[in-house]
Design goal:
155 residues; mainly beta; Immunoglobulin-like; 5-stranded mixed β-sheet; 4-stranded mixed β-sheet; 1 helix
Length: 155
């Protein structure tokens, strides 16, 4: 019984190690490659929406299908080509950070993209500032209107 437990533990550890290594494919390797940087930064005011566009090229001879985009925070939404990326084609993955759901100060968010033959990581970083309403005696307060800030990784 002791040998069975050790064997099971050894198999489990080796499976865990191989799964972890498969998930850490670099953006410089594999059929899908991020063009330019996989990290975008922005200075935001609380309430702004950070729209980060990452261009991705398929360097393989087959269509690559994105299975999922898994952000590390519910404050980050995403959009990706659901019909796949044709061989030799370029498309984009967009991450939307809702800054109203993130505490003020520096932030670092990631999203893992799993596709047919591997995965890669996209990163968002920056700083969020709180803008207080401006009051002048006898006038209506000036309240900050959130904006959508769009950044595209350089090609």
């Amino acid at each position: 019984m002791m040998n069975t437990t050790k064997l099971f533990l050894l198999i489990f550890i080796s499976l865990k190690f191989s799964i972890t290594n498969a998930q850490l494919t670099s953006t410089l390797e594999g059929p899908l490659q991020v063009i330019g940087s996989n990290k975008l930064s922005a200075k935001l005011n609380s309430g702004d929406i950070f729209e980060a566009v990452f261009h991705v090229r398929n360097n393989s001879t087959e269509t690559q299908y994105i299975a999922q985009v898994a952000p590390d925070c519910v404050c980050t939404q995403f959009a990706f080509p659901e019909k796949g990326i044709e061989a030799g084609a370029t498309d984009s993955i967009v991450l939307f950070l809702q800054s109203k759901n993130v505490p003020p100060g520096p932030f670092f968010k990631r999203a893992f993209v799993d596709y047919t033959e591997g995965s890669f990581e996209l990163q968002l970083e920056g700083d969020i500032t709180v803008i207080r309403p401006k009051y002048k005696q006898g006038e209506k307060p000036i309240i900050y209107q959130p904006t959508q800030i769009r950044k595209v990784n350089q090609q």
